[in-house]
């Protein structure tokens, strides 16, 4: 029963999050002006903080693009043992680094940089998603009497 539950639900949750994670990247191939309103409630979409491909602005800023990428990577990453033990510390570390980058850029202590925005966003998105799946695995195992081994 553990294998059935874990595979069935985890697979579909992972597939959904991987799909959501690549959505902003796939809209580059389409007329992105149609999709900007959809993402407007999730992202400021400032042109100076967004990536452009073939003179078309991405539907999210570079940090959000990193977050979405991190979510997709976290969704396809197998459950990691260290996340069971250090998951919250990993998430707080990734979020703290992203926040530090945000503060440094907004107070002009270092210039706005798409690479640092994407990397810190990806770290945060990956850490949260990896913790989610680690927590799901722990919950399923404890409900079925398998413990956290």
Fold and architecture overview:
With 149 residues, this protein is mainly alpha-helical. The chain has one domain (2-143). Helix content is 68%, strand content 7%. The chain contains five helices and two strands. A two-stranded antiparallel sheet has the order 1-2. Strand 1 and strand 2 form a beta hairpin. Helix 1 packs antiparallel against helix 3 (62-76), helix 1 packs antiparallel against helix 5 and helix 3 (62-76) packs parallel to helix 5 (114-143). It is flat, with a radius of gyration of 17 Å.
Largest β-sheet summary: 2 strands, antiparallel
Strand order of the largest sheet: 1-2
Q: Helical content, roughly?
A: 55-70%
* Binned strand content: 5-15%
Shape: flat
Total number of helices: 5
Low-confidence stretches: none
Compose a concise summary of this entry:
The chain has 149 residues and is mainly α.
What is the topological layout?
Elements: H1 2-26, H2 36-40, E1 50-53, E2 56-61, H3 62-76, H4 81-106, H5 114-143
Antiparallel strand pairs: 1-2
Structural key phrases:
mainly alpha; 149 residues; two-stranded antiparallel sheet; flat; 5 helices; 7% strand
């Amino acid at each position: 029963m553990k294998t059935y539950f874990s595979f069935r639900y985890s697979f579909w949750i992972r597939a959904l999050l991987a799909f959501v994670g690549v959505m902003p990247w796939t809209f580059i191939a389409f007329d992105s002006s149609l999709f900007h309103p959809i993402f407007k409630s999730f992202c400021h979409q400032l042109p100076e903080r967004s990536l452009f491909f073939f003179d078309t602005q991405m539907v999210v800023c570079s940090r959000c693009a990193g977050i979405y990428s991190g979510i997709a990577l976290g969704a396809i990453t197998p459950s990691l043992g260290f996340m069971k033990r250090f998951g919250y510390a990993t998430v707080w570390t990734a979020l703290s680094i992203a926040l530090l980058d945000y503060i440094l850029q907004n107070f002009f202590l270092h210039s706005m940089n798409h690479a640092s925005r994407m990397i810190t966003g990806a770290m945060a998105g990956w850490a949260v998603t990896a913790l989610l799946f680690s927590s799901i695995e722990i919950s399923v195992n404890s409900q079925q009497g398998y413990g956290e081994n």
